[in-house]
Amino acid sequence: MSPVLWDLISSPRFQLAATVVASGVTVAGLILGYQAFEQEERLSELKNSIPSLEDHHLKINGLGASSRHIDKEDLRNEALARRAQAGDFDDELILEQLARNRVFLTDEGLAKLRDAFVIVVGVGGVGSHCTAALARSGVSRIRLVDFDQVTLSSLNRHAVATLADVGMPKVQCMYRRMIAITPWVKFDLKKDKFDIDVAEEMLSPWAEDGRQPDFVVDAIDNIDTKVELLKFCHDRGLPVISSAGSGCKSDPTRIMVGDISATTEDPLSRVTRRKLKRLGVHTGIPVVYSVERSGEGKAELIPLSEEEYQKGCVGELSALPNFRARILPVLGTMPAVFGYTLANHIILTISGYPIYYPTVKTRGKLYDSALSYLQGAEERLVKDIESGDPHANVGLKLPISSSDVTYLIEEVYKGKSIITGVPTKLVLIRWRRPEGTTMRRIGSGAVEQKSAELRLRDLVCMTKEEAIQHAEKVLMKKQPLEEVYDKEVIANVEARLAEAEAAEKYLSAA
């Protein structure tokens, strides 16, 4: 050892400093050890303080016990939950359970979340995962609204349901499982079907303090009920977020959050958006939706056969009036992603955490251009049929909207020309020349309205250049399709026209 180093460690000042450091380490160790011991004591005391299981008359949050046997663990969880929700629960233990959220959202953000009141309407695959995430993240007051029961088919996507829960109301199943994880969260269970007649009650303030809901979650899969909920919230200024359909979806990377006005790719949101527009609601509702497109080999919601429609009373095939009459193809993972995305948006919004969602690129100019081209093509066709004068003034209106154009281009024709597969400069045009006039006249003189008899099943998607050639050969010169296109193209077009015809049943009712 060098003399300099020896002199240093032999110095009284160094020895004093070393003693101080060693003492500090010892004290820190004792403090941490005592804190751990104290925490363990609190946790042990809490567990030991749960009442005995002699009382077998407990009811699950006022709903009462179901017909199945309630096991001892349920009774213990219910007893603890009653105490915790009454305030008899160590807050330090709650904060430790929420520690990761606490450091992410900050103390202020977590405090806002713990003070929040959220209503979840629909506690199936999407709603159950959303509810679980909200409770685990700190939301302290949650109202659950759902009339349905857990079924065997629910188990591929429900967040917490087990075989033992089959036949139990979904709201009770959710409560039963969540109080075993977050006993301090207060639940208000509404085992009822939501509709406009009970909207005031279902979306009312929290009974104890009159607090308005900080968020309402729409996890309903019935269009009419969904529209009623969203319209009610919009008119009353209640913050709401809606889930689009997770059925037939398989790509979690294509799930987005955006305004309902931007959800052009999703069939459920498209129909919902149309109905809301008719009620005066055009924007201002965030939606979780998927921009994934259908494709060859992917699951599809197959419409009911024409034979079933001919029988009439299609609604009788469903469990309740206006509810779907078919089984949706659902990959069990996708409702969970939708549910967690809903919860994520709510958690960040309430806590004040910055949210920056990428803007979904739409092809609005393309759709407008396609509609404009169709308008001109129909004008020229009517002029040719009516008078043979291509310069005659017609002033024709079309029964085709920009939403119809979007649907046909993106969903029926997959964003490509049916002739060559080219994805740019797309337009819509009639596939066949009509046998007679397509113009309808209503009124006369200054109040006369002229419109084209045109349906989705009449239109095909091509590039502008292809459409010009098609109009010239097929629509004007009446050349047979078989002379212009090969059999494969004609067969592909006929299949797409049949798809558009089947879709008209739903779009016309929207």
From TrEMBL:
Domain THIF-type NAD/FAD binding fold: 100-366
Record flagged with keyword Secreted: no
Major localization listed first in the record, in broad terms: mitochondrion
Name the UniProt record assigns to this protein: Related to E.coli molybdopterin-converting factor chlN
Function summary: Catalyzes the ATP-dependent dehydration of threonylcarbamoyladenosine at position 37 (t(6)A37) to form cyclic t(6)A37 (ct(6)A37) in tRNAs that read codons beginning with adenine.
InterPro entries in alphabetical order: ThiF/MoeB/HesA (IPR045886), ThiF_NAD_FAD-bd (IPR000594), Ubiquitin-activating_enz (IPR035985)
A GO cellular component annotation in the UniProt record: mitochondrial outer membrane
PANTHER family xrefs: TRNA THREONYLCARBAMOYLADENOSINE DEHYDRATASE, TRNA THREONYLCARBAMOYLADENOSINE DEHYDRATASE 1-RELATED
Family statement drawn from the similarity comment of this UniProt entry: Belongs to the HesA/MoeB/ThiF family.
